[in-house]
Amino acid sequence: MLIFFGSPHDHGNTGQMLRILLNNLESTYDIFIVHAFKLLANPCCDCDFCKKYGKCQYRDLDEVYAYLEEASKIIVVTPVYNCSFPAPLKAIFDRFQIYFNYKNKKIHNKKKVFLLFSCGSFAKTEIRESLLTQCKYIFKSINAEVAGFSMLDQTDKGNTISNLEECSKNLLKNLLGNN
């Protein structure tokens, strides 16, 4: 299982939700976590290197690509910034362009993606739909589909651990029942 963690704060709301997931999954899955703010991947610069050579000119995501190709399940645990992803996570997702551009570099095993987001304001339907649409197209290039979604909103109003647990466990129920 591959987890993309998009928060700069390991101990904030999103970090707490990640820990709840890990406490429930570590004994069941081999897990590799990509910490977007620690990795700080180079953004895609549309240089066409991947079209010509089947690999990215930057080597910073080689390990991530290997896990991405092997994983059957992917979890994205991230806060929402301005109705989208934090820039370091978006940079990683943009680098999936290698799979779109280099037609012979396809991921053959179908993957399921599970999304666990936190949001400071009330997450209106339009925001949720926008995030899901983005994810649909981001993950389509790697032969993956969104199979579960849970969002904890209004985090700026304060959350109890029960709010965090409920949101995380809703996603866990979906993930564990979706083999």
Structural summary, described in words:
By secondary structure, this protein is an alpha/beta fold. It has one domain: Flavodoxin domain (Rossmann fold), CATH 3.40.50. Helix content is 42%, strand content 18%. It has eight helices and five strands, in the order E-H-E-H-H-H-E-H-H-E-H-E-H. It has helices spanning 13-25, 36-39, 49-53, 62-70, 87-94, 97-101, 125-140, 161-176; strands at residues 2-5, 32-35, 73-79, 111-118, 144-152. A five-stranded parallel β-sheet has the order 2-1-3-4-5, sandwiched between helices. Helix 7 links the parallel strand 4 (111-118) and strand 5 (144-152). Helix 1 (13-25) packs across helix 8 (161-176). The two termini are 12 Å apart. The model has no long low-confidence stretch (mean pLDDT 89).
CATH architecture: 3-Layer(aba) Sandwich
Largest sheet report: 5 strands, parallel
**Shape, please?**
globular
Order of helices and strands: EHEHHHEHHEHEH
Radius of gyration: 16 Å
Number of domains: 1
User: What's the N-to-C terminus distance?
Assistant: 12 Å
Question: Which percent bin holds the helix content?
Answer: 40-55%
Helix tally equals: 8
- How many beta-strand segments? 5
The CATH H-level homologous superfamily: Flavodoxin domain
Q: Give the mean pLDDT.
A: 89
Class from secondary-structure proportions: alpha/beta
